[in-house]
Structure formats: structure tokens, C-alpha cells
Amino acid sequence: LCINRLPVSSMMLGLHYNHTTEPPASFFLVGIPGLQSSHLWLAISLSAMYSTALLGNILIMTVIWVDSTLQEPMYWFLYVLAAVDIVMASSVVPKMVSIFCSGNSSISFNACFTQMYFAHMATAVETGLLLAMAFDCYIAICKPLHYKRILTPPVMLGISMVIIIRAIIFMTPLSWMVSHGPFCGSHVILHSYCEHIAVAKLACADPMPSSLYSLIGSSIIVGSDAAFIAASYNLILRAVFSLSSKNAQLKALSTCGSHMGVMALYYLPGMASIYVAWLGKDRVPLHTQVLLADLYLVIPPTLNPIIYGLRTKQMRERIWGLLMHCLLDHSNLG
Questions:
Q1: Into how many domains does the chain fold?
Q2: Within-domain flag for 287
Q3: pLDDT tens profile 255-288
Q4: Which of 21, 27, 213, 260 might form a disulfide with 182, Cβ 3.0–4.6 angstroms?
Q5: Nearest to 16 by CA among 207, 188, 191
Q6: What percent of the chain is predicted at pLDDT more than 70?
Q7: Three-state SS across the chain?
Q8: Is residue 96 part of a domain?
Q9: Residue 1 covered by a domain
Q10: Are 181 and 204 a contacting pair, CB within 8 Å?
Q11: pLDDT by residue (tens digit) across 146-192?
């Protein structure tokens, strides 16, 4: 049962100060400042979304793994995307639910920076995967005769490794800068997870270098990926609307429609979360900033499998077939 402990979070705002530069043993997350009275309902909503994300992404990974007809580049990238979505949601949601339910807001120093590293690295990997999926869609529609020659298994593996290495290169210096700062003030993080700007503000040193590095790095990664994705879909739409057959146009648009929906779910709240923290920090209430950052990590993993499962005909048929097979096997055993 969830027990909402409002006094604990509010008391923490004025406690846990010290005057040592030694790393603190633990930090304290307050959840969503100003919305403590809604923590129980937020915990229920997050639990439902997290369960949907886990079940949906695991189902998609299972179907792609066991079905030999889905061994295509698009489904390989979708498999990796589902795995990244699980990491992204799992890095923050269990702790957030614990805070909202029981008031268990303590998180150790090492656990905090581990959470920060994996949460932000997963977002950097996801944007790269969305670019790879846009490239896959472009090749499939604009250069269908060269599809299998261009997107070979070594090429797909290389693309995946470059995306992961890029995220590691971006996150490692950022985590090092924040984790090696002197923490001689409050250990209370005004957030529901160890978001790097919220943690950097607690250091006695100037948080500007790490915050500026994060802003510039995020803008370069997200901006360049979004620009290439936009260019890809511009070419895709030109090719689609040049087709003489209406059925062919609808089929091509349906193929990439799910991709575009997932990208909108990821980039819109993501860019809002990044720039509101910088440009609107004095205008946008703190609880709104925290909610944006939370939903940015939870909504895409929850809705990605639903969009791909419902909009992609081949995936829908394979998922339904797998579920029916499992139900029939269960009934036969019964």
C-alpha cells in the first residue's frame, strides 16, 4: 500500500546542510516540488505507464527475436529502440514511485550518478536510433532496389555502435564534471530523479560549465539528428507524392507514419524540457519543469510499442499470432 508522507519531503527542504567538501553519503529527492499532495496519484499513473512500457517493449523484442520473417533493418532498429526504452524508464520510474508512495527519498551518491548517467545516455542513444530509423525509411522508399545492398548486417551493427559510442562520449565528461564537484551545501535535490542540472546546482562550485556543456552538447546532438531526420522525410514525402498510384502512396505513408509519431513524442517534450530549464526557469513554475523532465523519460517508452504494434501491420499480425499461440498452449496444458 502506498503511504504518502508529505511532512518528510517538506522538512527536507530546510535540512541536510553541512560545510564539508567531501562527497555526501546520499542525496534526498523531493519528488515534484509543490505537488506533494498529488504524489499518490502520480505514483499510480507512473506505475501504470511503466507496466505498459515494460510489457509492450518486452513483447516487441520477443516477437522480433523469435520471428525469422522480421529479420530486417527496420525491425533490428526497433528491437534496439525497445531495449533502450526499457533502460530509460527503468532508470528513473521505480525510484520515483518509491518517493511518491512511501516518501523514501534517499539515494546514495553513487546510485544518483549512476541513475543520471543511464537516464541521459539512453536519451542520447534514442535520438540516434530515431535518425537511423528515418534513414532506413528513406532507403526503403527512395532506393528500394538498393535496400539490402546498403543496409547489410555489418552496416546496421556499425550504425548501432556509433550511436552508443557517441552517447558515451557525450555523457562521460558531463557525469565526471558534476560528480567531482565539491558538495558543501544542501543535499536536497529539487527533482524526482538525479537530473544533472538539479544536482549541479547543489555543488559549491559554479554549475555553469557543466550546464553549458550539457546545453551545447544536447543542442548539437538533438539539432543535428532532427535536421537530418527532417531532410530524410522531405525526400521521402517528395518520393511518395510523385507515385502515380494512390494505394502505393497510402502504403508508403503508413510505413513511415509510425516513425513520425514516435519522433514527435520524443522530440517535442524533450526539447521543451531542455530549453525550459534554461530559458524559462524564472517564468515556468518549478513543478512544471520537473513534470516535463519526468514525462520526457516515461511517455516515449510507454507509447512507442503501442504505436508500432498498432500502426505497423506486420508487427500487429506477428504480435497477435504470438499471443494466440501462448493462449492456445496454456489452454492445452490446462
A1: 1
A2: yes
A3: 667 677 777 777 777 777 777 766 656 677 788 8
A4: 21
A5: 188
A6: 85
A7: CCCCCHHHHHHHCCCCECCCCCCCCEEEECCCCCCHHHHHHHHHHHHHHHHHHHHHHHHHHHHHHHCHHHCCHHHHHHHHHHHHHHHHHHHHHHHHHHHHHHCCCEEEHHHHHHHHHHHHHHHHHHHHHHHHHHHHHHHHHHCHHHHHHHCCHHHHHHHHHHHHHHHHHHHHHHHHHHHCCCCCCECEECCCCCCHHHHHCCCCCCCHHHHHHHHHHHHHHHHHHHHHHHHHHHHHHHHHHCCCCHHHHHHHHHHHHHHHHHHHHHHHHHHHHHHHHHHCCCCCCHHHHHHHHHHHHHHHHHHHHHHHHHHCHHHHHHHHHHHHHHHHHHHHHC
A8: yes
A9: no
A10: yes
A11: 888 888 888 988 999 999 999 999 989 988 888 887 777 778 888 88
d(CA 233, CA 134): 7
Dig out the grid coordinates for 35 from the structure: 505537488
Q: How far apart are CA 175 and CA 110, in angstroms?
A: 11
* pLDDT one-digit tens code per residue, 212-228: 888 888 888 888 888 89
Which pTM value belongs to this model? Answer: 0.82
Alpha carbons 94 and 10: distance in angstroms, whole number: 21
Model pLDDT, residue 17: 42
Q: Which domain holds residue 179?
A: 6-333
pLDDT at 19 over 60: no
Q: What CATH number does the domain containing 315 carry?
A: 1.20.1070.10
pLDDT band at 294 (very low <50, low <70, confident <90, very high): confident
Q: Is the pLDDT of residue 12 over 60?
A: no
Cell numbers that stand for 243 in this block: 507515385
**Which has the closest alpha carbon to 141: 3, 222, 260, 22?**
260
